[in-house]
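Tip: read the tokens left to right.
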């Protein structure tokens, strides 16, 4: 028997196998590869977790290769698994697109598309533009949340698409650049008049109350470092884990904050908020549209993905 740590190619392994590989085993392998978890793959496939484990072990014996390294939380693909996934993903996804999920009837309605992302971006930019999809019969299940847990849920098969505030690491997910959001430093008109336009703005702002999304000032700290070139060491006067709430507090006169421009464009236009600084090089954050590799068995996932990529040009 050949050593499992051998660097043979997928073609070499295929030649060593006496019989064609079972498509069901390959489907199970691809689900584990995409989700990074036997449990999540079992949920997607409608199988028990022991069945998935048995199928992966059977495939490993047939290929004479270790496919996954078992971890405390989930599994990590072995190098050979990356090669195998690259070979089987397109034919398996093409077959699934023809047969439908689990061989369902051709006229069965498509499953809902599960979309997730930051609450503010969903409410302000995404949801208002989804009407054309709903009119086409697309059903949507939208979940707000923070990027890290949403990506975990995507790997586990709970979401189809996630709008992420950063590009995910690793090869188990694919990410396309979606939009750039510009961050702006704002305050209510009363505070803007008190602050004025001093030569050393960062020093002047030291005594002004800060309103933030979280205690560690994630967005504000980034603005200070990028624009003023200094580290911000301050405690916020008010925190709320909702940027719309932060915006409302600042518009009411609670202090200053940093917000994505798209979220406060209306208030800046009306004068409810005032731009305190307009640097030549404002901080920018790129959002990404993330999904598991390959083509989903639900054709509406591609519709939603392509719609979002087009719509994001106008956000």
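Filled-in amino acids:
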């Amino acid at each position: 028997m050949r050593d499992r740590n051998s660097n043979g190619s997928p073609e070499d392994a295929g030649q060593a196998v006496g019989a064609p590989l079972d498509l069901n085993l390959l489907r199970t392998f691809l689900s584990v590869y995409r989700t990074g978890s036997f449990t999540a793959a079992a949920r997607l496939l409608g199988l028990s977790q022991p069945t998935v484990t048995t199928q992966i072990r059977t495939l490993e014996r047939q290929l004479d290769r270790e496919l996954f390294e078992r971890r405390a939380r989930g599994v990590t693909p072995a190098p050979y698994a990356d090669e195998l996934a690259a070979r089987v993903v397109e034919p398996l996804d093409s077959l699934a697109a023809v047969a439908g999920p689990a061989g369902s009837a051709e006229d069965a309605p498509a499953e809902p598309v599960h979309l997730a992302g930051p609450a503010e971006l969903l409410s302000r930019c995404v949801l208002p533009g989804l009407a054309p999809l709903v009119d086409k019969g697309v059903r949507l299940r939208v979940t707000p949340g923070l990027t890290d847990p949403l990506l975990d849920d995507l790997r586990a098969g709970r979401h189809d698409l996630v709008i992420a505030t950063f590009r995910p690491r690793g090869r188990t997910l694919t990410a396309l650049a979606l939009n750039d959001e510009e961050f702006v430093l704002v305050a209510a008109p009363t505070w803007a008049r008190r602050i004025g336009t001093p030569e050393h703005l960062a020093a002047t702002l030291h005594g002004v109350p800060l309103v933030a999304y979280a205690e560690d000032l994630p967005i504000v700290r980034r603005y200070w470092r990028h624009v003023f070139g200094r580290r911000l060491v301050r405690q916020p006067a008010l925190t709320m884990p909702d940027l719309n709430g932060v915006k409302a507090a600042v518009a009411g006169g609670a202090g200053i904050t940093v917000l994505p421009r798209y979220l406060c464009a209306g208030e800046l236009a009306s004068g409810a908020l005032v731009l305190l600084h307009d640097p030549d090089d404002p901080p920018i954050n790129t959002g990404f549209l993330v999904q598991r590799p390959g083509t989903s068995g639900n054709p509406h996932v591609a519709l939603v993905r392509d719609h979002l990529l087009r719509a994001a040009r106008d956000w």
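The radius of gyration is 25 Å. The longest helix spans residues 79-99.
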